[in-house]
């Protein structure tokens, strides 16, 4: 094992020396110096990496280059630059990270590249459109709205039963309801809250997210996998993935036995496999990884954003009342629906401000260069990780007045209409921007509108809200308690 570690370190050092020699012939973006093997990693705060990287962006400018272990990295902190860069094919790859390239093997959608990624993205976009993800009203969108409202109604009903004077942590209830909604869309299956398999799947997901956060250095220093601590983490991650895939196969077998036609990704993929329409991309490993990506990405980001929204509503009761007054005035006793999105401007602005101030992925989803290319006047080598630094963009005082304050009015124009500033990139931009952005908007609006129609959300007496959060893969709220007082 010691020999393997020495070999790994030697390879990284060779890469570092080679890069330093070739750096002289390239015009690379400005950035901080690093040390052999580790690059700038020792100076990045593992608890608040988005803050450390934002400080670099403020110091070195909108295009900043640095080495993170074995991975050369470029930080982009200008919104127009992000849009222009990610619109190009050269930047449509995935970041060369050990976990994504090694453990996921390029399958799924998040870690896929090239023709596989293009084909599967078209497939997912087509499914979403067919299921009812659209801005335009119609039968399909109505059907999607009803699927979302099943989860919303279950969630509000459970919280009415659970709430008490000293408050509750809504995470378990929210995770069950949002997760079950994604189960319906992805697998065509829902679970009872106390179902042991469902509890196990949720636990496995939470553990996986936590372990990947702990294993972060593995992405940049792959030789660490030979150390006992990280070796156990790798075993846990790989074991969890295999167990999850086994459970997915059971769901696939159940679907095939029922032979029911349903609107789910699982059913659509299975049909494409059986009719040979996949052109070689609809394989069993791709099936498992795509299902995992769609469930994980859809659940984690939406759940986390809504948790932050509830916290901001509790922390800003005056803002909450403005939204509820607007709802009373425009809707009366009518329950809010998707057709009211154009009316409830203050609510939409509050959701947007939540996404700005607490970017779910504060360092963005990194891309990778698939060829030698350029950003502006700077050279960017093939295999570079390019980071759209959302935290820096969303808190930049040159774009946002008083950027660390919660002010939904910044998304409202003088004529009272909703406005989305150019520095607002909650779903990123370019060829790999979130394929389910419109679905996320539908879900967030319906959950937020129905919750504020049903409850006054507040903080238990004597308690203080912590709005800092904990940064792993996503920036999530710390454990907290809220009081949900029925408005009825």
TrEMBL record:
One of its GO terms (cellular component) is endoplasmic reticulum membrane. Its main location: endoplasmic reticulum. It is a peripheral membrane protein. Its cofactor is heme. It comes from the Eukaryota. Heme binds at residue 434. Keywords: Endoplasmic reticulum, Heme, Iron, Membrane, Metal-binding, Microsome, Monooxygenase, Oxidoreductase. One of its GO terms (molecular function) is oxidoreductase activity, acting on paired donors, with incorporation or reduction of molecular oxygen, reduced flavin or flavoprotein as one donor, and incorporation of one atom of oxygen. Gene3D superfamilies: Cytochrome P450. It is found in: Endoplasmic reticulum membrane; Microsome membrane. The keyword Signal does not apply. Belongs to the cytochrome P450 family. May be involved in the metabolism of insect hormones and in the breakdown of synthetic insecticides. This is Cytochrome P450 306a1. It comes from Temnothorax longispinosus.
């Amino acid at each position: 094992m010691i020999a393997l570690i020495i070999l790994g370190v030697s390879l990284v050092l060779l890469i570092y020396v080679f890069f330093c020699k070739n750096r002289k012939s390239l015009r690379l973006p400005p950035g901080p110096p690093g040390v052999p093997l580790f690059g700038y990693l020792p100076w990045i705060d593992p608890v608040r990496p988005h803050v450390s990287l934002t400080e670099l962006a403020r110091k070195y400018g909108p295009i900043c280059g640095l080495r993170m272990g074995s991975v050369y990295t470029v930080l982009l902190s200008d919104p127009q630059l992000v849009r222009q860069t990610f619109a190009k094919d050269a930047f449509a790859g995935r970041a060369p990270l050990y976990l994504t390239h090694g453990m996921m093997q390029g399958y799924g959608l998040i870690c896929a590249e090239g023709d596989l990624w293009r084909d599967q993205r078209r497939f997912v976009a087509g499914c979403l459109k067919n299921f009812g993800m659209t801005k335009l009203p119609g039968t399909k969108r109505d059907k999607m709205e009803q699927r979302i409202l099943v989860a919303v109604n279950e969630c509000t009903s459970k919280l009415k039963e659970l709430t008490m004077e000293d408050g509750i942590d809504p995470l378990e209830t929210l995770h069950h309801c949002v997760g079950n909604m994604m189960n319906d869309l992805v697998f065509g299956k829902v679970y009872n809250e106390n179902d042991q398999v469902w509890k196990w799947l949720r636990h496995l997901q939470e553990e996986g997210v936590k372990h990947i956060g702990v294993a972060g250095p593995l992405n940049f220093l792959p030789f660490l996998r030979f150390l006992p601590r990280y070796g156990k983490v790798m075993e846990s991650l790989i074991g969890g993935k295999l167990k999850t895939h086994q459970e997915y196969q059971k769901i696939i077998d159940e679907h095939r036995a029922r032979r029911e036609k349903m609107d789910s990704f699982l059913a659509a993929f299975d049909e494409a496999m059986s009719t040979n329409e996949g052109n070689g991309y609809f394989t069993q490993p791709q099936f498992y990884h795509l299902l995992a990506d769609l469930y994980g990405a859809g659940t984690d980001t939406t759940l986390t954003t809504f948790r932050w929204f509830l916290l901001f509503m509790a922390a800003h009761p005056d803002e909450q009342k403005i939204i509820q007054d607007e709802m009373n005035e425009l809707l009366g006793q009518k329950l809010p629906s998707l057709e009211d999105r154009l009316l409830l401007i203050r609510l939409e602005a509050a959701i947007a401000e939540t996404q700005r101030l607490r970017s779910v992925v504060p360092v963005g989803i990194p891309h990778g260069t698939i060829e030698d290319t350029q950003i502006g006047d700077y050279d960017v080598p093939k295999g570079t990780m390019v980071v759209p630094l959302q935290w820096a963009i969303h808190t930049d005082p040159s774009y946002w007045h008083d950027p660390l304050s919660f002010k939904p009015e910044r998304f409202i124009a003088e004529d009272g209409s909703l406005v989305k500033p150019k520095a607002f990139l909650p779903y990123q931009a370019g060829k790999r921007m979130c394929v389910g952005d419109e679905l996320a908007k539908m879900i967030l609006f319906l959950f937020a509108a129905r919750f504020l129609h049903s409850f006054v959300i507040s903080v238990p007496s004597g308690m203080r809200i912590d709005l800092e959060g904990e940064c792993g893969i996503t920036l999530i709220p710390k454990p907290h308690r809220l009081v949900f007082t029925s408005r009825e």
